[in-house]
Amino acid sequence: MTGMFSSKAVCLLSGGLDSATCLALALREDYDCYTLAFDYGQRHRIELNAAARVAHTLGAREHRVVKIDLRAFGASALTSEIDVPKHGSVDEMEQGIPITYVPARNTIFLSYALAWAEVLECSNIFIGVNAIDYSGYPDCRPEFIHAFEHMANLATKTGVEGRTLLRVHTPLITLSKAEIVRLAAQLGLDFSLTHSCYDPNDAGHSCGRCDSCLLRRKGFAEAGIADPLVYTP
Questions:
Q1: From start to end of the chain, where are the E strands?
Q2: N or C: less crowded end of the chain, CB within 10 Å?
Q3: How far apart are CA 137 and CA 224, in angstroms?
Q4: Sheet holding 31-39, edge to edge
Q5: Domain map (residue ranges) of the chain
């Protein structure tokens, strides 16, 4: 992942499989990457350690963690005392928008990324959203991304002055989880750096039965690639 950088990019990085793959792809395309993670009151704060590992190992120019408190609003199993749903298979996952949806999370995260991009005079934001094998979150859909991109170009001083023309890159949005796993393998991503579970135990081991774990395990199984993460029995 070396070469002459063509331009800067702010990359949202949770430490999960999708965002790590997205960063690896941006780096392969010679973007000078500034990674951004959020300590937002999530129960799975261990993902912040994974984000830092991924950013350092892959070679991000700078990694920042922004602390915000979405527990102030709650209404999600990730930011309040609501049990994370567990299932035996992907087929048993809830239809519709699950309780692990965090209200307006990607809107908030992209707004912070937009602010940093404006300071950097950067025209590129990468986000690893996916609209195929995902939990049904409304802020992972192409319609949302297009609407945010349009708004972003109206909202900034650098945009109005013509110094930036922001593009929100979503290279994984139409890929299945298996396709993402295969792409990550091609990019040389070390899967052991990543973390996906919504409800890990105190040792950091993944539960294996939350929506995020189930989708990850399905992707690795269909890709025919071993997942190095430890799952609790």
A1: 7-12, 31-39, 62-67, 124-126, 167-169
A2: C
A3: 27
A4: 62-67, 31-39, 7-12, 124-126, 167-169
A5: 7-223
| Residues 112, 67 contacting (CB under 8 angstroms) | no
The CATH H-level superfamily of 7-223 is HUPs (3.40.50.620)
Cβ neighbours for 35, distance < 8 A, ≥ 6 positions apart: 10, 11, 12, 13, 23, 51, 54, 55, 60, 62, 63, 64
CA-to-CA distance for 67 and 121, rounded, in angstroms?
Answer: 23
CB 194 within 8 A of CB 219: no
In whole angstroms, how far apart are CA 28 and each of 8, 42, 209?
13, 30, 33
pTM: 0.95
Report residue 27: phi and psi, to 5°. Answer: -70, -40
- CA nearest neighbour of 11 among 79, 71, 78, 58: 58
Return per-residue pLDDT of the chain as tens, 233 residues.
334 445 999 999 999 999 999 999 999 999 999 999 999 999 999 999 999 999 999 999 999 999 999 999 999 999 999 999 999 999 999 889 999 999 999 999 999 999 999 999 999 999 999 998 888 999 999 999 999 999 999 999 999 999 999 999 999 999 999 999 999 999 999 999 999 999 999 999 999 999 999 999 999 999 999 999 999 97
Nearest by Cα to 12 from 61, 58, 51 = 51
